[in-house]
Amino acid sequence: MHVLSDESIPPSEYQERIQTLRYGLQAANLAGMVSFGDCWRGANICYFTEFRPLDGVSDIANAIFFLDLDEEQPSLFVSRQCVDYATEVTSFPVYSFDEMKARLEAFAARVQTGTLGLEGASYITEDLSRRVRASIGNLTLKDTQVLAEIKAVKSENEVALIRKASALTDIAMASIRDALADGKQHTERELALIADRAMLAGGAERTGYDSMVQAGPRSAFNLARPTDRVLQPGDLVMTDIGARYRGYVADGGRGFTYGNVSPDKVAIVKAAAAAVEAGLAAARPGITASSLNATIQQALVNSGYEQFSTEARGHGTGHGTGMDPEEAQPWIGPGNETTLRENMVFTLKATITVPGVGGLRTERIVRLTATACEPLDEFPMELYW
Amino acid sequence: MHVLSDESIPPSEYQERIQTLRYGLQAANLAGMVSFGDCWRGANICYFTEFRPLDGVSDIANAIFFLDLDEEQPSLFVSRQCVDYATEVTSFPVYSFDEMKARLEAFAARVQTGTLGLEGASYITEDLSRRVRASIGNLTLKDTQVLAEIKAVKSENEVALIRKASALTDIAMASIRDALADGKQHTERELALIADRAMLAGGAERTGYDSMVQAGPRSAFNLARPTDRVLQPGDLVMTDIGARYRGYVADGGRGFTYGNVSPDKVAIVKAAAAAVEAGLAAARPGITASSLNATIQQALVNSGYEQFSTEARGHGTGHGTGMDPEEAQPWIGPGNETTLRENMVFTLKATITVPGVGGLRTERIVRLTATACEPLDEFPMELYW
């Protein structure tokens, strides 16, 4: 009954992913893995099945993927209301959350002792975590990144989908540029909506996340939602926009000046672009995430914006992306000695926010080739509109 | 700096809400309230401030509203990255999560003993719940619905926004009807996208939740995401679609037959519509939620679909809606002896899913007037396309 399109991840690839995870868990000396995902942060689930939970305040929003190394097949636990749908699009057994306790208890009774990995620890609900912990007897539940590390390296099919999402994000930026060209008044909220419409018109299945457009003094806020503020000539404008295409997302950031602006605003645009350029030039397989981070961080420090940039102060200059806008690996930050590998996909970013002046985040999405890095988005970084 | 539009909730209304909550907590003998919300289920936060968390796997996705009955003003705890934005749009003090421990400890040290209400218990993250519990000394943290009950009754401003979201949802259904009129082939996924585009074109700030369109055998799944299945003449089609407009949402459900269909499919459409009609006729202030539920439930049982309808089997026939698609109160279900009141806004629904035949969910959004109920959406319930 289930129809696959040319762009669907083929069933064989899902099988390979499960096999790779099995090896990873064995190597980490784990007895199995509990992986939590929800409607909005689905990667820990959707990496193995087309099933994605639904929006809600109840258990329809959640799912748990469970792999017991002694079992032939993994299990998926979902709300009772979603079992039919999940069964249709999943190649392994699906159970309702009502059945989770008994199945985990049987696993714990057999294994007796050892450690079970938990993926998604930073956002699992208290309710589900309690239910898991109460069902695993003497086993220890331990936060892991085994899955995060595996899915940091993307397949050809995945890269094609992220490339498409990146192209849709470029279209969104072009739609903002075109809208501003009419010389009329536009609010942040209107421009965000224009970007969203452009992504959907281009075939995005939705936005990757709620679009951010922040103008003037509001561009100096690190993260904010759009308001009814009208763009004024002289503003620096921060945007953070990404499309979702068939389960994969882009995470993009661009800022621009609007009308005639003071030189300090142009300097901010140039400094962020130069820092990201330095990262694009340095990124390649074989170096560590921390060394790539150091390149961008140092460029920001050198530009003189150290006190106005979280990246310059060591909070990281990029992160994995793919099925979720933000994935745990590779985190491009201080102390992450993970070696970067071909086909890792991640962002490289520089945020500069000067209170009273303005700011922007310039964020590119890249794939590592055999020897260097290929940006998956194409929109220019220095924008003076 | 912050610009308010004509449609913004006025600051005075936010103040009234806080005052009403204060009375509610006193009446419930609570020392205060911790209210959790996230980027997607924001009602527990956005009821008091225009701040809404951002999409992410880290703490940017979360927020905690804290009201200590002994303090003049409540507090809002958010990610450090969101403090500037939250401060701009919030009328009371904002702190970063880093400061939460010390503030809760000071509260606990003063209060010494008693109970602190927790709102959002079913979806609070394990991480944040742990941090709250570890900071409140001898106080007990207890799940409450004090806030849920207060915000079940909507203000005039709120009803106006929900009405707008409902009108945008009607437009989405009309766009599906118009798309199907061309006689060409359409997939579930295409139709969902057409609905999303129509909502955004009409001015929706986004969809209220990811649109569901399920055709043929898939319409017999209670909840599912759209796939590449092409609609076939003879299909019953389930849709579940709602728009978001300036922080308020509609939650709508309609099914339709496509082309010439067998009489059993028409009968399903008629039975669901008749059950919801019975609810619309019965809904009024002064009756209990459980008695309204019984009216719809009985209509479904009488129609003969008892085994194919979750509502007929006592799982509830409606729920509050407003800032989140699904709000906890009023829950229209068995055992809820809450008395319905004027200006409560909620859905009334009937789902019938017959495996191998198909199904639909007919879901209306209504507001209680002084004496009866007024549907906020207008799209017809019996659709034969």
Summarize the structure in words.
The structure is a homodimer of 385-residue chains. Chain A is of the alpha+beta class. The first copy, chain A, has two domains: 11-151, Creatinase/prolidase N-terminal domain (Creatine Amidinohydrolase, Chain A, domain 1, 3-Layer(aba) Sandwich); 156-375, Creatine Amidinohydrolase (Alpha-Beta Complex), CATH 3.90.230. The first copy, chain A, has ten helices and 17 strands. In chain A, strands 4-3-2-1-5-6 form a six-stranded mixed sheet. A three-stranded antiparallel sheet of chain A has the order 7-10-11, with helices on one face. In chain A, helix 9 (263-282) runs antiparallel to helix 10. At the A-B interface, helix 3, helix 5, helix 8 and strand 7 of A face helix 3, helix 5, helix 8 and strand 7 of B.
Please render the helix and strand layout as text:
The structure is a homodimer of 385-residue chains.
Chain A: H1 11-27, E1 32-38, H2 43-46, E2 62-68, E3 75-78, H3 83-89, E4 94-96, H4 100-111, E5 115-119, H5 126-133, E6 140-143, H6 146-151, H7 156-180, H8 188-201, E7 206-207, E8 212-215, E9 235-241, E10 243-245, E11 248-249, E12 252-258, H9 263-282, H10 289-303, E13 318-320, E14 327-332, E15 345-354, E16 358-368, E17 373-375
Parallel strand pairs in A: 1-5, 3-4, 5-6
Antiparallel strand pairs in A: 1-2, 2-3, 7-10, 8-9, 9-12, 10-11, 13-14, 15-16, 16-17
Helix pairs in contact in A: 7-8, 9-10
